[in-house]
Amino acid sequence: MTATQDRQSTDTPTPGTTGEPRTINLIQAVTEALAEELERDRRVVLFGEDVGARGGVFMATAGLQARFGKERVFDTPLSEASIVGAAVGMAARGLRPVAEIQFADYMGPGFDQIISQAAKLRYRSGGQFTCPLVIRTPSGGGVKGGHHHSQSPESYYTHTPGLKVVMPSTPYDAKGLLKAAIRGEDPVIYFEPKRLYRAAKGEVPAHDYTVRIGEAAIRREGSDLTLIGYGGVMPDVERAAEALGAEGVSAEVIDLRSLVPWDQEAVVGSVQKTGRAVLVSEAPRTGNFMGEVAYVIQERAFDSLRAPVGQVAGFDTPYPYVQDKVYLPGPNRILAACVRALNY
Description:
This protein is α/β, with parallel strands linked by helices. It has 2 domains: about 10-210, Rossmann fold; about 215-344, Rossmann fold (3-Layer(aba) Sandwich), CATH 3.40.50. Helix content is about 35%, strand content about 20%. The chain has 13 helices and 16 strands. The chain has helices at about 5-10, 25-40, 65-70, 80-90, 110-120, 120-125, 155-160, 170-185, 235-245, 265-275, 290-300, 325, 330-344; strands at about 10-15, 20-25, 45-50, 75, 95-100, 135-140, 165, 190-195, 200-205, 210, 215-220, 225-230, 250-255, 260, 275-285, 310-315. The strands form 4 sheets. A 7-stranded mixed sheet has the order 4-3-5-6-8-7-14, with helices on both faces.
């Protein structure tokens, strides 16, 4: 896989409507993707806690039950194990279930169904069954939700063979990646950075398109240092790059978008060019997925490195209620890591 600089070239166009791009926010992009896939494929069903008449706690599914009916968009009991288990059974029997877990923090009760059933069905059946399901869930902090509504648990799922894991940061990617996930043949954990739901705005084409899972996006070209992030941290990563640019430092910014699979070629190629890398995520530092990225950089680009690989992450503590600005990797912490790399 390779990264792309022109987002229009990353999409895979499919027959659909034409028209000028519109500016929408990330949650509107999610809603559009769900509506279009429900319209396109009768096998798609959408369910979870309060996703029906209410439209979900963040209103991502607002209006979909009224439009597509209670048989295709419906509420479930407050049981994540049941939600995931039902999704696995539906997928094995030919449907395309999209299950919402109300917060990523609540995925624990369904963990065994995800890692022992969904992730392994293709392998344990010798390819006789696939498990084409999507689990959507709001993830991360920044909305003062405290330690039960703000966690970033993506690293648990990147460790599980058989799962795909994605986390967009723009409306364009949110829509294109979700549509690609629904149309794929494997289970996808689709994390939605909740602090970007209405903060992230951008142009989204009116025509039908998908974004390939496993391909990073180069948000900014540079030659002195590579900044790598995904999901909710990306606005701060780009702010840090702008501040570096004002001081004459050319920072390349890579948005992974997809964690499994992830775009090793884009990352390694960039670090071989710049010689320095700073990795940014909001999950706790220990066991962080970015540790895998750092390992691959030193394995494949060691001779190009001019400084140790830096990492800016959340702290190894429960997510705090009121100190999220301290906990989250803001521009100042990112800049400090960049200065250390530049001065090494």
